[in-house]
Write a structure and sequence with these properties.
CATH class: Mainly Beta
Number of helices: 1
Order of helices and strands: EEEEEEHEEEE
Keywords: Hydrolase, Purine metabolism
CATH architecture: Sandwich
Largest sheet: 6 strands, mixed
Function: Catalyzes the hydrolysis of 5-hydroxyisourate (HIU) to 2-oxo-4-hydroxy-4-carboxy-5-ureidoimidazoline (OHCU).
Structural class: mainly beta
Family: Belongs to the transthyretin family. 5-hydroxyisourate hydrolase subfamily.
Helix content: under 10%
Strand content: 35-45%
Subunit structure: Homotetramer.
EC number: 3.5.2.17
């Protein structure tokens, strides 16, 4: 399993957000991995099994997702910066999404 995983839930529709492009970057802005959410709204293979401690950024291309659904959204993308402090722990960074709001938390 990847060291970092994510999933996106379309909270307005109450279902997984399928096909959202996701990219993981390191502190220098270098691309670590990218992918798209599957039928369950998950990206379970987002980068290597181990990453060094440090700051990372996940970018979700939410504008493209909403446009494909025929919905006018407010956020063209959602960017989440987080710090990986334990090189042995798994980090799950979920996104709860609607056209005009979003929230996130450290998942398990």
């Amino acid at each position: 399993m990847s060291h970092v995983t994510t999933h996106v839930l379309d909270a307005a529709l109450g279902r997984p957000a399928v096909g959202v492009a996701v990219a993981l970057y390191d502190t220098d802005g270098a691309l670590v991995a990218d992918g798209a959410t599957d039928d369950d709204g998950r990206v379970s293979d987002l980068g290597p099994d181990a990453l060094p401690a440090g700051e990372y950024r996940i970018v979700f291309e939410t504008g493209v997702y909403f446009a494909a659904s025929g919905v006018d959204g407010f956020y063209p993308r959602v960017t989440i910066d987080f710090e990986l402090t334990d090189a042995t722990a798994h980090y799950h960074v979920p996104l709860l999404l609607s056209p005009f709001a979003y929230s996130t938390y450290r998942g398990s």
